[in-house]
Amino acid sequence: MFFLRNLWLFFLDFLETIVVSLAIFAVVYIFLFQPHQVDGQSMMPNFQNGEYILTDKLSYRIHPPKRGDVVVFHSPQDERVDFIKRILGIPGDILKVSGGYVYLNGVKLEESYVNDPGAVLAGRFMRENLEIDVPPGQYLVMGDNRNHSSDSREWGLVTTQEIVGRAFFRYWPISEFGLVPTAEAEITVGAVKGAISTSNSR
Length: 202
Known about the structure:
By secondary structure, the chain is an alpha+beta fold. The chain contains 5 helices and 12 strands.
């Protein structure tokens, strides 16, 4: 009888541990971090097909997304599918594709992190030399592998509601283990920074 009682207490302790662990996992998954796997080559050379990342779901509850952030969001074409792209345009920005380059607020971006510098193609939404004004609550995103990416150039802007969060940590493969860098500094330097200061993320 003593043995059965101890066994029952052990089972209850074990069950309590499982329930608490699942509750913590659920809170973390729903409100804080969510794992994602990179599917495709649209973010090469900075993200490879098959890599695993953690998406920070908390930061954008505190502050809005920034230029240069790599974000995970529900596809505007199919909300069951998540995309990963880089934010180039935030509310108030004006962007266009012209002569193989992206222009932000009238200044040509020199993006060393992209796969096709100087060879960026326009699309159905963001046609050549067409200026796109980014309205409140929306963002313009592009893949780093510009000419092998379905992004804002093709299907338009991403809303705040569609953004899952910011890709902030890569945990597989081990050789790439670490924080995901942002390109904000590169996007906002020099003349672009001046332009920004005057106007107060397959």
